[in-house]
Amino acid sequence: MQPASSRFSPPAWLVLWVCALLWAIFQHGPLPLYSTRTLGVAWEMWNQGAFLVPHTNGAPYSHKVPLLFWLIHAGWAAFGVTDVWPRVLQVLIAAGWLVAAARLAGAASAGKPSAAPLVPWLLIALPYPFLFSLQIMYEVLLALCVAGALCALTGRPRWHWFALAVGAGLLTKGPVMLLHVVFPWLLGPWWSEAARGDRRRWYGGGLLAILGGASMLLAWAIPAGFAGGEDYRRELFFLQTAGRVVASFDHARPVFWYLPMLLVLALPWVAWPRVWHAIATARGPLTDGERFAVSWVVPTFAAFCLISGKQVYYLLPLMPGVAMLLAAVLRRQQSRVLANGRRWRAWPVAGALLGVALLLAALPVWRAHSADPPHWVSDAYATAPWFAAAFVGLAAGCLVGDPRRELQRIAACALLAIALVHAAFARSLFHHFDLRPAAAALARAEAEGRPIANVGRYEAQYHFLGRLSRPLAEIEERDVLAWAQANPDGVVVRYPARTDPANEKAALLVQPFRSRWIEIWDARALAAATPSVEGARDAPAE
């Protein structure tokens, strides 16, 4: 009999994933605009004691539903209002997603020999799930709900758990949750023995479960719609979904825009020739587990292509299905390769890591011999040699070891490489994204009772960081002088493409922000200095 400690020890892929995320997520403060916006909405709800209707900048916020905010509030109630709990929450959600994806791969294989053990290793190597697990936002929580719902659908269906997971997904990001689970359910008889054995129970139970999940959403949405007012109700029940599906008011893209993005999502595996060879030589009938993955990934991806609004991270919940398909073809090829005594060659991945090492090692030389190097070279050159040495070590790690564990080595090295890139960003470039100085200046202005105006669209990026209690006025650049004259005691936040050295003395604060600048002005000083600042073309932060 095995001791209890070995029976319940976590798998290596989970330990690597959680440790890398915990290390990375505390490297810097909340990133704009995803994390700062989510925290801003959660803070306004908390500060106002209004937990039914999300608010941003003093107005009802119809773009998102409230489950993630409620989870943040639960931690704040227990541990106090800081950004530590939301970060730990994201790591817990990401760990839950990876565990659910592994269980889904095993459940879909129905206990038969399969490639399921490869799935979590394939997933931890992907940059996009890792990087978005560091953002305090909705996609990874949605991905967890999707994986949980599909786990309940595989094997012997558990409709009560399916309903609960669907409801949680609907409360995370709205009706898009249904798009992720409806096709595997509708195509159930093609891949599920339970569906083939009793179609009436399959479709009847699934329909009731979906209605049960929808009732969870409506139990919140109906009272929230009445509490938020007519405009909020109209946007919540119609404009948000229809506006993204038909003619997007946000992130509109061409139909085939996602196709090249698949190469980005599939890094680093697209750099491994064995993947392409495995796909090209795949033969034989599909297993039920493979049919499940096809019924999930292919029609859902096609539906996302037809939807007007597109972002790469919208596809994150599909990644376990893609990994299941990739694992299946790699497992078949692995059997043939090992039978012939050959290795799975990881040299292209190792070469890519060496390429990154050479780029990092070249930064000090670039800075020394360039009259005007890009700002990121000047910011990163000092620590670049240390990171270059680490990448050389990871490249060597890809090439040395048991050929039967080559995929696992590549995955571990890729995960560590992503974490190192993130650490390099945190140590050298994050000050271009750090809104804490600006938020502190606005908090002082609010404490003095001064009105604050933001030039362009305000995304609540300062509210949590500065613990602001009042909304900021949104004005256009052409209206700055009129607002400053009407509010001489006020403060104006501008985002010029460039700044004059004289402004650093005249303004309350000047700091870099992405490729632009943030200038915070006393209204009187700005009105007096308006002729000198008109040379810079201003635009709101993206």
- Overall number of strands: 7
Query: In angstroms, what separates the terminal alpha carbons?
Result: 59 Å
Q: Strand fraction band?
A: under 5%
The percent range for helix content is 55-70%
Low-confidence stretches at least 5 residues in length (pLDDT < 50)?
537-542
Mean pLDDT: 87
> What's the arrangement of strands in the largest beta sheet?
4-3-5-7-6
Strand pairing plus helix content: what structural class?
mainly alpha
Helix tally? Answer: 27
Domains (count): 3
Give the overall silhouette: globular
Largest sheet: 5 strands, mixed
How many whole angstroms does the radius of gyration measure? 26 Å
Q: Can you describe this structure?
A:
By secondary structure, the chain is mainly alpha-helical. It has three domains: 10-331, no CATH class; 347-432, no CATH class; 436-533, no CATH class. The chain contains 27 helices and seven strands. The chain has helices spanning 4-7, 12-25, 34-48, 67-79, 84-108, 119-124, 127-133, 139-153, 159-173, 176-186, 188-191, 193-197, 199-228, 230-245, 258-265, 273-280, 288-306, 319-339, 347-369, 375-380, 384-399, 406-428, 436-447, 463-466, 480-486, 501-506, 523-533; strands at 55-56, 59-60, 452-455, 473-475, 491-494, 509-513, 516-522. The strands form two sheets. A five-stranded mixed β-sheet has the order 4-3-5-7-6, with helices on both faces. A hairpin with a 2-residue loop joins strand 6 (509-513) and strand 7. Helix 8 (139-153) packs antiparallel against helix 9. It starts with a helix and ends in a 9-residue tail after the last helix. Residues 537-542 have low confidence and may be disordered.
